[in-house]
Amino acid sequence: xxxxxxxxxxxxxxxxxxxxxxxxxxxxxxxxxxxxxxxxxxxxxxxxxxxxxxxxxxxxxxxxxxxxxxxxxxxxxxxxxxxxxxxxxxxxxxxxxxxxxxxxxxxxxxxxxxxxxxxxxxxxxxxxxxxxxxxxxxxxxxxxxxxxxxxxxxxxxxxxxxxxxxxxxxxxxxxxxxxxxxxxxxxxxxxxxxxxxxxxxxxxxxxxxxxxxxxxxxxxxxxxxxxxxxxxxxxxxxxxxxxxxxxxxxxxxxxxxxxxxxxxxxxxxxxxxxxxxxxxxxxxxxxxxxxxxxxxxxxxxxxxxxxxxxxxxxxxxxxxxxxxxxxxxxxxxxxxxxx
Length: 339
What we know:
The two termini are 15 Å apart. By secondary structure, this protein is α+β, with helices and mostly antiparallel strands. The radius of gyration is 21 Å and the shape is flat. The strands form five sheets. The protein has a six-stranded mixed β-sheet with strand order 3-2-1-9-10-19, sandwiched between helices. Strands 13-12-11-17-18 form a five-stranded mixed β-sheet, sandwiched between helices. A three-stranded antiparallel β-sheet has the order 5-4-6. The longest helix has 23 residues, at 233-255. It is 39% helix and 27% strand. The protein folds into three domains: 2-125 and 331-338, ATPase, nucleotide binding domain (Nucleotidyltransferase, domain 5); 130-172 and 239-303, 2-Layer Sandwich (Nucleotidyltransferase, domain 5); 175-235, ATPase, substrate binding domain, subdomain 4 (Actin, Chain A, domain 4, Alpha-Beta Complex), CATH 3.90.640.10.
């Protein structure tokens, strides 16, 4: 059996070759004193509420392995959930990774897959998988620009004729906005909130229409007591704008090496946005204003990578993605390992 996994900074998604359904859970693990692991949704509920006896870890950070043992546990959990018992010892594994990982970080991903029980591990570019999942004609002689707005990594990839013209990534994403909100409130308002509160505040601001302030609960650092704070939406919008500027710079750098004919294709077809960040209407509008290029949000953008992996696995297992990597001039991207 062939297992495909999109192991993101905030969410992991996984499925089996030949099937369209997949699992999707927060990429969080909680360990108790005995070492027993609680994975996914239940573990995410504990963030910021856990006692010292419970350790909470994020297996992946900025698209790379942050906790090797936790990544192994995630893959084992996926295999146990998706595969029948008799096939868990014979599965092969394909994992999506951003283009910016170093050779050491790629090797860590492969080793985690092997330790979890995979007899063969293949890594593929998440931008290519996302383009395939979004239904783009990546095998045709036309230029496609895909921007993946993830929680930990933002990636831009230009694709044409089964090849990657250029692919670049930065270790910034939706989580960066959360951390910036936390630090700004702590520094300017002497008010402390947790990661989940910051994420909710970010989402509420994006959905707010004409609201000037939003209430958040946390700890007043001046008194040390629980309190509430009215946060100006302009403060959060400023963080969205900073992230937007980063994305625009990444797009410009990626387009700098692009042939003029492909630039023309991109102007005609627009830039395709995938990933969880593509669900932010405010961010999409900001990008359209700053670039003056049409922005197209893919259907179900946050699941494009896993759908691309499943689609390719269904079609003669990794045929399209394998062709991409065989034609790729970037020597460090294609990695496979057999046990």
